Amino acid sequence: MIYKRIIYALLYCAGEFHLSRNFRLQKVGNVEWLKNNFGFGETCNFIDELIIINVTPNPTQSDFKKYFEDIKKLKEKIFVPITLGGGIRKLEHAKKFFANGADKILVNYLAHQESKTCKQIASIYGEQSISVMVDYKKEANGKLNTFINSGKFISKSLKNFISTVKKIKFGELILNSIDKDGTGAGLDLDCLKLIPEKFNKPVLLMGGAGKPEHFIKSLSQKKVSGIITANLFNFLGRGLEEARNYSIDKNIKLVQFKKIDL
Amino acid sequence: MKKKVGIIDVGFGNIASVINAIRFLKHDYKVVKQPNELKSLTHLILPGVGSFNKAAKKLKKNGWHPVLKKFANEGKALLGICMGMQLLFEEGTEHGTTEGLGLFKGRCEIFKKNKNFPLPHVGFNLVQHSNTKIWNGIINYSPFYFVHSYRVLPTLEKTKVGITDYGEKFISFIEKKNIFGAQFHPEKSHRAGLVLLKNFVEKIR
User: Fold this and answer.
1) What's the pTM?
2) Of the CATH numbers 3.40.850.10, 3.40.50.300, 1.10.10.10, 3.40.50.880, which one belongs to the domain with range B4-202?
């Protein structure tokens, strides 16, 4: 069977994990803090995947080193597929991410460039190992525009982006709504109208998941393969487990992770 | 006898998660890069992702075939994960036919084309298991994480198998005495995967 996915995302910047609201970051704590608070480990027992995005501006070699070290610490007790990304511009970067334990990498900037780099990465690690994430925002006239550099610069319209992204090699597309980011007010579904019926890659939505009803509303869409939540506080403790089980009760096709004693 | 798990690193695929899992389970382990490093090992894990063709050729060229066969024939526990499972079979058919280890009879072929089931098969999927020792404590139809485009087609022999449905029912787990193969990644499959690895080390010999 093919199941839908609930994915947890963490934003990492300069040694600390952050919350984000409309792309403005707020520090919450370092890796030790995360490991020991908010039932993070418990929450991870109920997710399909974990994404950890390094949003450190202009990351230096030592920023990357620290990021990879912290991920290593975080991974000690987490046994799920992990997607890593942030600042990947060339093949050498991607290789580093895979060598540091990425099952998939996240590319954003590269996907705006119709870059050959994705082709090179795919030829070594496979298309399925590349997740394209695109940040977009609704303009006053209702048009959806995509942004690069953490929402700083307009790139092209989302419509245009979706029609050109097909030219690069990748495994899945993540649509991240800047407007909904961190609001917990529900996910944007308008973007789905721009996805052609024949689009043959999994589409995931990010931004705005705040309560279990939001999971149902988005995951019940035929075009949606999964949703991503980055809000540490909206699904505290058993929150994510309950939201997952609630969705399963409402006939959303998710696998059920059971508690097992080791 | 004290248990010690060897994790084979021949340069295909990420062994970090497997190491992580064995370390989490507090078992003694050793990363094995050469076939002459198997002394003192009671258990061996062969992980792998990527091209069967390349991996199978590399295994053969580096002299792993007789050593792994000997290890298995001595009754020591061997577990192939993902492509590591496929390598335990007689042959693979990616870019022509390549010889595998032949510890299980059968071959490894790409999934039949089906537009509703894109390849690779990625994500969690359920495994209907055979209730053997290695599955102890794991509820039947538990979810495990998969990433693959090829699946094994065993020929009839005395094996116990686990079954998964992805457009067709395929063999996602196989065992014969002390030899095991998992098409999924137990090291990325939450608690259920850890229990499977724990059982492999603690309950098998």
Assistant:
1) 0.94
2) 3.40.50.880
